[in-house]
């Protein structure tokens, strides 16, 4: 499938939390990890990613420290905090519930209404 999936509003934070839950990543690494685990179906724009990383760090859901990237450049590496882990679990539960509700709506038939 060559067409990329549009990201629903409000899901970027959850995807970032998932990506960093798999291990520390620098900003561009977060972008690549989301792309990778989505099977190349999602592409996050850097203009959306970096404000989201700042917001998540400000909320205390991720923390960062400076380090060196694979290409020997100085980069900020992000890690999930305990609060971020709880937030990710909560967001995952909400997402799964909403997906279940929407799936039920899409399965509805005229004779069931």
Characterise this structure.
The protein has a single domain (12-112), classed as Arc Repressor Mutant, subunit A (Orthogonal Bundle). Helix content is 53%, strand content 14%. The protein has four helices and three strands. The protein has a three-stranded antiparallel beta sheet with strand order 1-3-2. The termini are far apart. The model has no long low-confidence stretch (mean pLDDT 91).
CATH level 1 name: Mainly Alpha
The ordered H/E elements are: HEHHEEH
| Gyration radius, in Å | 17 Å
Strand order of the largest sheet: 1-3-2
CATH superfamily: Winged helix-like DNA-binding domain superfamily/Winged helix DNA-binding domain
Number of strands: 3
Report the mean per-residue pLDDT as an integer: 91
Helix count, DSSP H or I runs of 4 or more residues: 4
How much of the sequence lies in strands comes to 5-15%
CATH architecture classification name: Orthogonal Bundle
CATH topology: Arc Repressor Mutant, subunit A
In the residues, how many domains can be counted? 1
Helix content: 40-55%
Low confidence ranges:
none
Shape: elongated
Which class do the helix and strand fractions yield?
alpha+beta
Distance between the termini: 34 Å
Instruction: Report the biggest beta sheet as strand number plus sense, adding barrel if it closes.
Output: 3 strands, antiparallel
């Amino acid at each position: 499938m060559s067409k990329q999936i549009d990201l629903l509003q409000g899901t970027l934070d959850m995807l970032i939390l998932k990506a960093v839950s798999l291990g520390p990543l620098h900003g561009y690494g977060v972008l690549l990890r989301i792309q990778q685990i989505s099977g190349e179906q999602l592409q996050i724009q850097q203009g959306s990613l970096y404000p989201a990383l700042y917001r998540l760090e400000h909320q205390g859901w991720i923390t960062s420290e400076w380090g060196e990237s694979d290409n020997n450049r100085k980069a900020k590496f992000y890690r999930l905090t305990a609060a971020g882990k709880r937030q990710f679990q909560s967001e995952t539960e909400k997402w799964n519930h909403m997906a279940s509700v929407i799936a039920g709506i899409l399965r509805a038939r005229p004779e069931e209404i």
